[in-house]
Amino acid sequence: MAARVKNCLYMLLAFTLLPLILSMHPGCVIQLEKEKCMERMALDDPGSDPEYVCRWMWDNLTCWQPARIGDVVWMPCPELFEVMNEEYEEFGKMSRNCTEEGWSEIYPHYFDVCPFDDNRTSSMDKYYVSVKALYTVGYSTSLVSLTSAMVILCWFRKLHCTRNFIHMNLFVSFILRAISVFIKDGVLYAEEDSSHCFIHTVECKAVLVFFHYCVLSNYFWLFIEGLYLFTLLVETFFPERRYFYWYTIIGWGTPTVCVTVWAMLRVHFDNIGCWDINNNAAIWWVIKGPVLASIMINFVLFIGIIIILVQKLQSPDIGGNESSIYLRLARSTLLLIPLFGIHYTVFAFTPEDVSKKERLVFELGLGSFQGFVVAVLYCFLNGEVQSEVKRKWRSWTVNRYFAVDMKHRHPSLASSGVNGGTQLSILSKSSSQIRMSSLQAETPAT
């Protein structure tokens, strides 16, 4: 377990965030630099040129370009040290002399000019292990609670309405997001060594496409929840059923278009590895742009809904003192935050290199529990859902009681092939006839 964490945890946590935090595991950084060096060697090989005594050289950290005798080649600290020591802004340089016998030893040594803190690396490993454990628990809890909420909303027909249908689609998007995270982790990080860094299989790329689709769909259904509630408060006549088809197209269709365009661009312009490293910022904005747009619009809708709620609660038609009004407003605001995903605005528009540790905890750790919170607030604690569940429970209890009671009172009926449902039907008809006859007897003749 320790070896797996040490070899792939940087990339694992860096990629799981949708607003990507551009950090990479050291082993993957070394492999990437090695591949770049090999490509440069193939494209710019001086061959048998006698002037270039010192050829291209990869020393497992730095790629040294060809040089003539007497040349001194200076190189900056490898990117590996920048990844492992992000708080340092300035790094030193190393040099090698080209002699008649080839390259000299490096001077000064890497560890003399490139900062490296082994204790800090160990503490960061522990920190990332804790974050991974937190988001694993969060997504597992959300998956169980959302599945239970879906069963409840699908089972009871009286709960079938446009509002709950939108909630159900949001629940499905959260479920798919959790499943896609587990699948991606299992496919990308199944190996204990750094061989996962450059997986080129079609299956791996398909998993990444599915992951991005699920995450995008989740953001868009959060946007639709906000749009639906805002439209419901603003418009007097609201054709919910007609709008629901458009919501479905936006929620599931728009992510399909964005992910398809992104995949085609990756195939033609950035077909590197398993598409889990986004070096081309322009292509990455095909995914990141719609996400930021949905977060921004949802934030505007959230502010608009709060303003409308304030106006409605301060209306003279609404009874209650000022403290109760603000209490209801605060309660409504807290309920809307997980539904709109407003917490994503905390880091959505900040530079990606700022507060990486805090962003990991906030986006991965706390964000993984969002599905659980949404399921609890909008299903398990929903008054309409609770009433329907209680009604069904009472109905089942009464039917079971009468079935058992009729079986004991009329054993001949039970043994003659008449089932419990027929007995209850007879009992119900008899009771209604008795009530009608008694009502006619009590009614005075005209």
Shape: elongated
What is the domain tally? 2
In the CATH classification, which architecture of the largest domain applies? Up-down Bundle
Class by SSE composition = mainly alpha
- Distance, first to last CA: 90 Å
CATH superfamily of the largest domain: Rhodopsin 7-helix transmembrane proteins
The proportion of strand residues reads: under 5%
Residue runs with pLDDT of under 50 for 5 or more positions = 1-23, 412-446
Number of strands: 5
Strand order of the largest sheet: 3-4-5
* Most strands sheet: 3 strands, antiparallel
> Do you know the CATH topology of the largest domain?
Rhopdopsin 7-helix transmembrane proteins
SSE order, as H and E? HHEEEHEEHHHHHHHHHHHHH
What is the count of DSSP helices, taking H or I runs of 4+ residues?
16
Can you give the mean pLDDT?
75
Radius of gyration based on Cα positions: 32 Å
Helix content: 55-70%
The CATH class of the largest domain, by name, is: Mainly Alpha
Q: How is this structure best described in words?
A:
- With 446 residues, the chain is mainly alpha-helical.
- It folds into 2 domains: 44-117, Irregular (Hormone receptor fold), CATH 4.10.1240.10; 126-380, Rhodopsin 7-helix transmembrane proteins (Rhopdopsin 7-helix transmembrane proteins, Up-down Bundle), CATH 1.20.1070.
- 68% of the residues lie in helices and 4% in strands.
- The chain has helices at 2-16, 26-43, 79-84, 110-113, 118-155, 162-188, 202-234, 240-269, 281-313, 322-340, 345-348, 356-366, 370-380, 383-409, 411-415, 420-442; strands at residues 57-58, 63-64, 72-76, 93-99, 102-103.
- The strands form 2 sheets. A 3-stranded antiparallel sheet has the order 3-4-5, with no helix packed on it. Strands 1-2 form a two-stranded antiparallel sheet.
- A hairpin with a 4-residue loop joins β1 (57-58) and β2.
- α5 (118-155) packs antiparallel against α6.
- It is elongated and about 105 Å long.
- The protein starts with a helix and ends with a helix.
- Residues 1-23 and 412-446 have low confidence and may be disordered.
